[in-house]
Amino acid sequence: MDCRKWSDKYSTDCKLKYNSIITQNNYISCVRNFLNNFSKYREPKEVPTQEIKEYLLTFKTINTRKHNLCAIKSFYKLSVNMPTKIDKIPYPKSDKKLPQVLSVEEVQKVFSVCENTKHKVILALLYSCGLRVSELINLKWSNIDRSRMIINVLNGKGGKDRQVMLTESLIPLLEKYYREYKTKEYILSGQFSNQYSSRSVLQVMKQLGVKAGINKRVWTHQMRHNSFTHLVEKGVDINLISKLAGHQNVKTTLIYTHSSHNIVSKIPSPLENILL
Questions:
Q1: pLDDT per residue over 50-80, tens digit each?
Q2: Which one, of 216, 207, 220, 206, lies nearest residue 261 by Cα?
Q3: DSSP SS3 for 163
Q4: CA atoms lying within 13 Å on the CB side of residue 145
């Protein structure tokens, strides 16, 4: 099989179909690995469905398997013109794990040990706005609207734009950061590039978690979970939180009501009616 030809063809089709660069890159990577795995066949149409099923089972996590299935189905539909080739392979049900969140006190500990101004800006933007890491590193100074006290998040997940609040306490921190680093277009810039990397953000979060003595795992996307869970605990309307999060369906946002320890801890137990 001419893997390069099919990979290039799908790359073009994928970019025409999907607006999100992240989706494009992920799908193209999955399809490239798929093609290399079945390079012994002359054409993609010759790959047996049973072997595709066995290939998918090599991925250990449900979410990775589902992601690869989405990419492969997209490839057969867009580039091979065989939209029903693997229609009978069902999507696995996603893991229903609750996000592990930090308490407000634990988040405060992380802020308290953060002395580097750039790192504090990263932490503050993630927590105050519930940004995804891709949204954080793509954030530009022009997205900050001080006159309306909002931050415009452009081309988020699914290529969608949304607005989040610009917290008053964030402004002096951003001003201090600008005086120190004088970044141009993007708020966060790397040492050798115009943009900061998601890997660097993750390293910052891990280091701060260790420094703060947090026993739980601390990572980038967790700050998004922390943000929305704590808003739920403050009584903010779930539909409003859903809009801030950029969720297509409010059902996705409801997970934060389940992960809120404050809500769960206040539920009266039937054991209270029992004399022990």
A1: 999 999 999 988 889 999 999 999 999 999 9
A2: 216
A3: strand
A4: 13
**Which of 67, 119, 140, 157 is the catalytic position?**
157
Long-range Cβ pairs for the range 43-52 (8 Å, 24+):
43/1, 44/1, 44/6, 44/75, 44/76, 44/79, 44/80, 44/82, 45/80, 45/82, 45/85, 49/85, 49/86, 49/88, 49/89, 52/86, 52/89
178 is catalytic: no
Long-range CB contacts (< 8 A, 24+ apart) of 131-134?
Answer: 131/164, 131/224, 132/156, 132/157, 132/221, 132/224, 133/198, 133/201, 133/202, 133/220, 133/221, 134/22, 134/198
* pTM for this predicted structure: 0.73
* The pLDDT value given to residue 276: 72
If we measure between CA atoms, which residue out of 7, 8, 27 comes closest to residue 17? 27
Q: Where are the beta strands (DSSP E) in the chain?
A: 144-145, 150-153, 162-165
Active site residue 221: yes
157 has catalytic annotation: yes
247 is catalytic: yes
Active-site residue, selected from the candidate residues 32, 73, 120, 224:
224
Query: Which residue out of 132, 177, 196, 230 is catalytically annotated?
Result: 132
Q: Which of 27, 55, 76, 256 is catalytic?
A: 256
Q: How far is CA 142 from CA 32, 123, 249, in A?
A: 36, 20, 29
